[in-house]
Amino acid sequence: MPATPVPASNLATRSPDPDHVEALHRIVMQSLDDDQAVDTISIPLAGKSSIADYMVIASGRSTRQVASMAAKLAEKVKRETGRSARIEGLPTADWVLIDAGDVIVHLFRPEVRTFYNLERMWSFGDAPAAPAEGSSAAPAQGSSAAPAQGSSAASAQDAPAPGNA
Residue 57, by phi and psi: left (phi above 0), alpha (psi -120 to 50) or beta? Predict the structure, then answer.
């Protein structure tokens, strides 16, 4: 089914109100928790980037779970804020990006998340390394952990580029 264009006035945009930003962040975190996302972390971007106030990164156990979490999150953001989130990567669901304006959400299959390791890139050393495959323990929000000794990164051919099947 082709995507229906969303009027620009209904797209998620940045809010100048900190209360709206925090409310959206809570909606995102609660939705991912309800859908049993794995290893969910939230990286505050205020002062680091102008694209959003938070980046949330989580994993699903399969492409089906990743796609389901993304669809439910977009529906919840629309229902509770009246704004439509932009979604990229849903057809393959290896890496799905949800742009909700003040909160950017990346949902991954575990091996794709490990390969791209966005936590390290965006945290500038503040966030833990990407969780090892099969790990279900989520680090506490704002905690810092060192990468596991002896861990190896996936090769480029193991993880598809975003948007590629």
Answer: beta
Q: Report CA torsion sign: 117, 66, 131, 97.
A: positive
* Whether the predicted model's global pTM rises above the 0.70 cut: no
Q: Taking the alpha carbons of 92, 105, 162, 158 in that order, is the dihedral positive or negative?
A: negative
Residue boundaries of the structural domains of the chain: 37-133
Report the DSSP pairing between strands 103-108 and 54-59: parallel
Whole-angstrom distance, CA of residue 11 vs CA of residue 19: 19
Quick one: CATH architecture of 37-133?
A: 2-Layer Sandwich (3.30)
Burial class (CB in 10 A: 0-12, 13-18, 19+), 135: middle
Strands 38-44, 86-88: pairing kind:
unpaired
Enter the tokens of residue 120.
Answer: 């390290």
**Residue 14 — pLDDT band, cuts 50, 70, 90?**
low
Longest dimension (CA), the chain: 49
The residue count of the chain comes to 165
Burial 83-112 (b: 16+ CB within 10 A, else e): bbbebebbebbbbbbbbbbbbbbbbbbbeb
Residue 87's nearest CA partner among 49, 116, 75 is 75
